[in-house]
Write a structure and sequence with these properties.
Blueprint lengths: L27 E2 L8 H14 L7 H13 L4 E5 L2 H11 L5 E5 L4 H8 L4 E5 L10 H7 L4 E7 L8 H10 L4 E4 L7 E2 L2 E2 L6 E5 L12 E5 L2 H10 L4 E2 L3 E2 L10 H12 L1 H19 L5 E3 L6 E2 L5 E5 L1 H4 L3 H10 L2 E2 L12 H6 L8 H9 E4 L7 H16 L1 H12 L5
The structure holds ligand T4K.
Ligand T4K binds next to helix 3 and helix 4.
Length: 412
């Protein structure tokens, strides 16, 4: 390990999983919210209260939409109350029908947004190096029943926008991107957001910048943007004229106030994430079987997801053991995204054979681990966490033996 300091634990008996005290006293979360300048947020909320305009296309939402559109270099941004609702109205506005191809290795909201609309998700495998949906696999899955493609910019990396756009054009399919992770990310020097028919960002509390809850649909298509605006507001055009089916997917003003405050601090949040990522890279270097996921060349990510792949054979410890042992020490590492949507009950029942075509997804969902980052995490905590990981991996066999002793009837 690159850092010279020793782990501040006396030895095996001092590990929390074996009865010692937790290394971190306040839990370290994956997705601890980044909070921007409180005074700015409060001033916005005061102005909102003074104006008595709380929702329905208020000035803060308009300002938020303009700020997001400008940051992502797109013509239109339609803010929503969360990204899931954003995905759903975009899917509906694009007229997706029948089967829609998407990765299984994603947060379940991607799949649910389709299934909730009675569309059939067709899960596609991912590239083992990038964790992104593989366009060659997408092409193999296209049939006359296919009614759309839903790419996911996992960990903020661009999901083959060029290849998927070519495929969508060739087969005349609508193409939508779940860009929930991709705020502030770019691909080949261009901000993510302008590919396909539309892209959807998330501003959930756990994202790099948040609006408490929130989403944003990005598009360069003015006709689509107009349709999306009506759909998110019950289908209204003007005050009492409804011309399409709509729902309530509006972002309230208080969320836009938080969104704007977060956006002001986005670069600072990303630079803290970069610093943490560099500390992880240094601290984990040389650990056998434990690989820190790096974005491919050409992609600039926000480093909001720090992802490890744990190869049990080479590391001598499984991902799930690490999750349990870290949790005991106050590190709430997450198994994003386990077990893969295709293995979750609603989807497993409908397509029990999906696993046969998703070997990479199955391997990754058994090996991947997300670690804490963001402004709640100091570089010193990252270093200590890396030392802990190294210690746990190096001592996995004796830890396991002691755990067996502790639970055997003799110990009772
Ligand atoms: N597509 C993708 C690819 C996504 O990743 C997501 C959401 C979506 C679509 C849908 O976007 P939204 O509709 O949500 O806008 C969390 C988030 O709830 C979810 O938004 C996010 N992805 C997903 C990756 O993570 P959980 O179930 O892991 O959240 P939870 O409640 O366990 O919180 C994570 C950690 O953060 C916990 O340790 C607690 C901590 N936390 C959480 C909240 C909300 C805090 O410290 N403070 C907080 O306020 O899903």
């Amino acid at each position: 390990m690159a850092t010279g300091k020793a782990l501040s634990k006396a030895g095996l008996a001092d590990l929390a999983v074996l009865g010692g005290p937790a290394l971190f006293t306040g839990d370290l979360h994956v997705g601890r919210p980044n909070i921007g300048e409180r005074a700015h947020l409060m001033a916005r909320i005061e102005a909102m209260l003074d104006s008595r305009w709380l929702t329905n296309d208020g000035p803060l939402v308009a300002e938020f939409e303009a700020a997001v559109a400008s940051r992502h270099a797109v013509r239109h941004c339609v803010a929503t109350n969360n990204a899931t609702a954003g995905l759903q109205i975009a899917i509906k506005a694009l007229g997706m029908t029948g089967e829609v191809i998407l990765p299984s290795f994603t947060f379940v909201a991607t799949a649910h947004s389709l299934r909730w609309l009675d569309l059939t998700p067709i899960f596609c495998d991912v590239d083992p190096a990038t964790h992104l949906m593989d366009p060659a696999e997408v092409e193999r899955l296209i049939t006359p029943r296919t009614g759309g493609i839903l790419g996911v910019h996992l960990w903020g990396q661009a999901c083959a926008p060029e290849a998927l756009s070519d495929l969508a054009r060739q087969h005349r399919l609508p193409l939508l991107f779940d860009a929930a992770h991709a705020l502030g990310c770019s691909h080949r020097g261009q901000p993510i957001g302008g590919a396909g028919d539309a892209e959807v960002l998330s501003f959930h509390a756990t994202k790099v910048a948040n609006a408490f809850e929130g989403g944003a649909i990005l598009t360069n298509d003015g006709t689509l943007a107009d349709r999306l605006r009506r759909m998110r507001n019950f289908g209204f055009r003007g005050t009492d004229h409804v011309d399409i089916l709509g729902i309530n997917a509006k972002m309230p003003e208080v969320c836009a106030a938080m969104g704007l405050t977060s956006l002001e601090a986005l670069d600072e949040f990303i630079s803290v994430n970069r610093r943490n990522f560099a500390a992880y890279r240094q601290g984990l270097a040389g650990l056998p079987g434990i690989r820190l996921h790096e974005a491919p060349a050409g992609d600039e990510v926000n480093h909001h997801y720090v992802i490890l792949e744990v190869d049990e054979q080479a590391a001598g410890v499984s991902r799930d053991e690490l999750v349990r042992w870290l949790r005991a020490e106050g590190v709430l590492a997450r198994r994003y995204f386990h077990p893969g949507c295709h293995r979750m009950a609603p989807y497993r029942a409908e397509d029990p054979l999906a696993a046969a075509r998703l070997p990479v997804t199955d391997r990754l969902s058994a090996q991947v681990l997300a670690l804490p980052t963001g402004t709640a995490m100091t570089a010193a905590a990252v270093e200590e966490l890396c030392r802990l990981l190294g210690f746990l991996a190096a001592n996995a066999a004796p830890i396991r033996r002691r755990l067996i002793d502790l639970t055997s009837p003799k110990a009772a």
